[in-house]
UniProtKB/TrEMBL annotation:
Belongs to the inward rectifier-type potassium channel (TC 1.A.2.1) family. KCNJ3 subfamily. The gene is Kcnj3_1. This is G protein-activated inward rectifier potassium channel 1. GO terms for biological process: potassium ion import across plasma membrane; regulation of monoatomic ion transmembrane transport. Residues 8-148 form the Potassium channel inwardly rectifying transmembrane domain.
Length: 321
């Protein structure tokens, strides 16, 4: 097999990196929430920990600063003196007071007195700032945990595509399956042919995208994915594979990108699974083995045969020939 660079990996990851953005990189900061959600988990956790740690230390320092400027630290043990915050006499105690206030623990040992207007203002600022930080970071973590990317891992595609006859017509076929009992609502499948070409005007298109018809007119692209299905692309005069034969397949260089979209039944979120087939992964004159069998009162799917194919008599000529 010839190994070459893919546009889309078998696991659906797109091999595209954006570089030399220049001043356009500032657009990521304008949409900071989406930028944080798109980061990897290790960076999300690091930002989560650093943000809370820095915020806690800064706010605790402000409480300690108020006590220091008022002279409360030196007279904290004087029963006749009314400090801004009772029982705050060093930085650790100021930090504990901040944590008790922020987490609404309220042990009752440290509290704000009525003779401290600056402490009341700082308390209001701390409450507003804490609510904003909690809503932003916890919301970001919740959205990241609830993303349906992992659901795509239980959607299977056959390792190879096949070319054989169906109903007397030459067809390109591949198989999809759902490993979970929960359904994909409104599942729809699309295929893109990515191939370089040159226009009559001499323009070279290195990654030209062409749509492959997998049943748009008949509704076959709308899937009821409760059992493995074989997706069929009829090679006719409108197909980009109209002139493809068994011999020319060996010298061609193309990539078929498959996109399966649907709504996750349990969460209601849209999920997308992707894969691709290069010319080396298209088997001419093969057909998929059956995986469905009737048991006692139910249908059984044997996923051990999901990727298996067998040879069938198929003319080596193109659909045009």
């Amino acid at each position: 097999r010839r190994e070459r660079q893919r546009f889309v990996d078998k696991n659906g990851r797109c091999n595209v990196q954006h570089g030399n953005l220049g001043g356009e990189s500032s657009r990521y900061l304008s949409d900071l929430f989406t930028t944080l959600v798109d980061l990897k988990w290790r960076w999300n956790l690091l930002i989560f920990l650093l943000t809370y740690t820095v915020a806690w230390l800064v706010m605790a320092s402000m409480w300690w600063g108020i006590a220091y400027l008022r002279g409360d630290l030196h007279r904290a043990h004087d029963d006749s003196y009314s400090p801004c915050v009772a029982n705050v006499y060093n930085f650790p105690s100021a930090f504990l007071f901040f944590i008790e206030t922020e987490a609404t623990i309220g042990y009752g040992h440290r509290y704000i007195t009525e003779r401290c207007p600056e402490g009341i203002v700082l308390f209001l600022f701390q409450s507003l700032l804490g609510s904003i930080v909690d809503a932003f970071l916890i919301g970001c973590m919740f959205i990241k945990m609830s993303q349906p990317k992992k659901r795509a891992e239980t959607l299977m595609f056959s390792r190879a595509a096949v070319v054989s006859q169906r109903d007397g017509k030459l067809c390109l076929m591949f198989r999809v399956g759902n490993l979970r009992n929960s359904h994909m609502v409104s599942a729809q499948i699309r295929c893109k042919l990515i191939k370089s070409r040159q226009t009559p005007e001499g323009e070279f298109l290195p990654l030209d995208q062409c749509e492959l018809d997998v049943g748009f007119g008949t509704g076959a692209d709308q899937l009821f994915l409760v059992s493995p299905l074989t997706i069929c692309h009829e090679i006719n005069s409108k197909s980009p594979f109209f002139c493809l034969s068994q011999r020319s397949l060996r010298s061609e260089q193309f990539e078929i990108v498959v996109i399966l979209e649907g709504i996750v039944e349990t969460t209601g979120m849209t999920c997308q699974a992707r894969t691709s087939y290069t010319e080396d992964e298209v088997l001419w004159g093969h057909r998929f083995l059956p995986v469905m069998s009737l048991e006692d009162g139910f249908f059984r799917v044997d996923y051990s045969q999901f990727h298996a194919t067998f040879e069938v008599p198929t003319p080596p000529y193109s659909a045009k020939e």
